[in-house]
Task: inverse folding
């Protein structure tokens, strides 16, 4: 067979492998009970409640969202419902996370002064997304100056911006230090576009959520405007018009606490072993797909499982199911550091971040595998359920027979078409799978989504059918893993074999080194062969072992709002390692750096780490990897063995 056709043939073989009813990992009565009880409409009603709230970290809006989730969890009969609180004052560290001050806003209005009138351009009360997170109070009347991107000194050449508001094309935090610190501007207006997709710029009415630096020595305020508004302002300035603006902001950072909602469905006998459901509760209003969708979907999984257990339709699981609603990444890092008992007891996590995008969002649903540094069978478990829904929903949409189309009455009827994707970064699954914690994580997510981080990320664009299907994949996977024992190994091996075919197809398409991929697959086999099926694969000794990670601090090197590596490298006088800016064949510097640290286990040599990185993200030199690891050693993350 021609080499370029083989991956497609393998994919067809994999799809047909799950063309059955129901999947083998759960008995038919359990599948039927889940499919019948899960409700996309119930999930969407809860989502509509969350989407009314501006849910920034530590804010009153976030607190209201936490109370809403906790109230629903109690109403659904979950156990141990709590809102955990961890102090956040800008000084306390939770592992590598420097706690960020909370941020609240009461007022934010931007108006133009023209012909004796004050014409409102942006209002926080009407649309909170227009005020950048971490803006500080101000009452300023001044002129507007266009500085292009605003990220280079040349952007300000010949322009007097002192005491004025600057118009920038980039995210406000990217221009903050130059505009405010160097050139003494009074504030910022940003028209930065949404995260780049094929649809970026198509809708010039989108207002993108933005933020300022959390730990800046140059605090200020920033407003976000649409591309249409910015184009009109730029054109008027280009023609020599003077534009006077009045900015009123009543907002600021303050000491508070990270609030994290958690609840459980208690297991029968294994209190030291838990399966976690994860999401992130924070985001701007409306923030429907990102990430009210993930929050309400794990809530719906919890409601369904609890009801079926209470009704006797499902047996209570052996392991405890834990549901967690934190602020994104920083909340999860805080929780796993502040509650080491949880970090120790959680054996696997199911993370949902954007799982409800309807057709207009242009989203593609992914079941994302973990990094190669943490081999696990749990991703193949999730894919076995997702692939089965792919088949069932396609047969239904195409007019064929389908016993389980997973259709919500108020939702769409199109097939799911989920994809089994290689590891990508960007949400709380990174924290769980960081080498500090080593918790394998199933990651369910939509990408692309043309409305992400904008005022158009609304409940109207959420599909109840998609929510129901995501809830099924999560609930079925979590329930299976919560009961997993050596008796389930044969069926699981089948799921792993299918996943192996998919990984092999992708490796062939990329021209990856089959030897390293084989080591990854062999590690999964070794896990399934052990009595403790959730234990990490044993490390392979190397003759040239060099580095191992210190037990503290725990967490990633870069977390939202705080860069542990950059902060400590600057203090130690270490230049920025070249690996951080490296672009590989299918990976960026951030991904190389994350996995380089994860692969350090006290047994792999730098050569072996380099080889593994080259397989996962594309060829990289040993010199770049060594330079980064030596920098980690200098700031106390690694030590020589």
Result:
């Amino acid at each position: 067979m021609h080499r370029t056709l083989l991956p497609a043939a393998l994919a067809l073989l994999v799809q047909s492998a799950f063309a059955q009813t129901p999947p083998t990992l759960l008995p038919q009565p359990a599948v039927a009970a889940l499919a019948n009880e899960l409700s996309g409409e119930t999930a969407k009603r809860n989502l509509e409640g969350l989407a009314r709230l501006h849910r920034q970290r530590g804010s009153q809006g976030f607190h209201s969202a936490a109370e809403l989730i906790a109230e629903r969890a109690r109403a659904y009969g979950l156990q141990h419902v709590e809102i955990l609180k961890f102090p956040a004052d800008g000084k306390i560290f939770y592992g590598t996370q420097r706690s960020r001050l909370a941020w609240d806003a009461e007022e934010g209005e931007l108006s133009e002064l023209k012909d004796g009138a004050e014409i409102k351009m942006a209002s926080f009360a009407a649309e909170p997304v227009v005020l950048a997170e971490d803006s500080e109070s101000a009452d300023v009347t001044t002129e507007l100056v266009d500085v292009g991107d605003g990220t280079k000194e040349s952007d300000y050449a010949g322009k007097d911006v002192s005491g004025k508001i600057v118009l920038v094309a980039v995210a406000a935090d990217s221009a903050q230090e130059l505009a405010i610190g160097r050139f003494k501007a009074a504030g910022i207006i940003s028209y930065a576009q949404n995260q780049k997709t094929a649809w970026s710029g198509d809708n010039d009415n989108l207002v993108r959520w933005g933020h300022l630096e959390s730990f800046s020595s140059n605090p200020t305020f920033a407003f976000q405007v649409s591309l249409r508004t910015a184009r009109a302002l730029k054109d008027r300035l280009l023609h020599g018009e003077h534009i006077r603006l009045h900015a009123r902001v009543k907002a600021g950072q303050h000491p508070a606490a990270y609030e994290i909602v958690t609840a459980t469905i208690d297991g029968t006998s294994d209190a030291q072993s838990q399966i976690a459901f994860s999401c992130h509760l924070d985001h701007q209003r409306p923030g429907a797909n990102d990430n009210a969708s993930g929050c309400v979907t794990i809530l719906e999984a919890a409601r369904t499982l609890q009801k079926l257990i209470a009704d006797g339709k499902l047996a209570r699981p052996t392991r405890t199911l834990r549901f967690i609603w934190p602020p994104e990444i920083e909340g999860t890092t805080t929780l796993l550091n502040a509650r080491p008992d949880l970090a120790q007891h959680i054996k696997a996590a199911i993370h949902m971040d954007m799982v409800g995008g309807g057709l207009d969002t242009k989203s593609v649903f992914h079941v994302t595998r973990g990094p190669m540094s943490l081999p696990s069978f749990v991703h193949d478990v999730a894919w076995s359920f997702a692939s089965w829904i792919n088949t069932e929903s396609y047969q239904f949409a195409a007019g064929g027979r389908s016993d389980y189309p997973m259709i919500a009455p108020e939702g769409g009827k199109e097939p799911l078409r989920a994809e089994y994707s290689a590891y990508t970064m960007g949400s709380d699954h990174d924290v769980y799978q960081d080498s500090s914690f080593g918790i394998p994580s199933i990651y369910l997510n939509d990408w692309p989504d043309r409305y992400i981080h904008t005022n158009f990320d609304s409940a109207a664009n959420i599909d109840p059918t998609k929510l129901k299907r995501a809830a099924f994949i999560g609930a079925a996977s979590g329930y299976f893993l919560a009961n997993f024992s050596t008796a389930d190994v044969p069926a699981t091996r089948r799921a792993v074999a299918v996943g192996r075919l998919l990984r092999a197809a992708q490796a062939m398409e990329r021209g990856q080194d089959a030897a390293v991929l084989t080591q990854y697959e062999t590690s999964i086999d070794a896990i399934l062969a052990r009595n403790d099926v959730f234990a990490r694969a044993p490390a392979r000794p190397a003759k040239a072992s060099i580095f191992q990670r210190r037990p503290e601090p725990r967490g990633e090197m870069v977390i939202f709002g705080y860069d542990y590596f950059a902060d400590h490298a600057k203090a130690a006088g270490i230049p920025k390692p070249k690996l951080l800016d490296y672009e590989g064949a299918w990976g960026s510097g951030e991904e190389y750096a994350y996995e380089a640290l994860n692969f350090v286990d006290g047994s792999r040599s730098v050569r072996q780490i380099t080889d593994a990185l080259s397989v996962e993200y594309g060829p990289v030199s040993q010199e770049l990897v060594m330079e980064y690891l030596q920098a980690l050693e200098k700031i106390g993350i690694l030590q020589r063995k």
